[in-house]
Amino acid sequence: xxxxxxxxxxxxxxxxxxxxxxxxxxxxxxxxxxxxxxxxxxxxxxxxxxxxxxxxxxxxxxxxxxxxxxxxxxxxxxxxxxxxx
Length: 85
What we know:
Largest sheet: 4 strands, mixed
Radius of gyration: 12 Å
Number of domains: 1
CATH topology: Glutaredoxin
Number of strands: 4
CATH superfamily: Glutaredoxin
Distance between the termini: 6 Å
């Protein structure tokens, strides 16, 4: 299973939705809350090529994007492929 990393904020409904999908799939992920650890915001911006909204989701070295991007991968059946790479 690929390493999954999410940059989130606690109050973000899109972050909650993304985590709920991963939890439903029983995927273990690492979460960095940039509200609690603001020093990680620059790391997120660099990894996400300047994307500043949360969540920012990474599966392995692949930058998925945000919640809507991950949901689109799920709808197309591509999310499982990335997760199992």
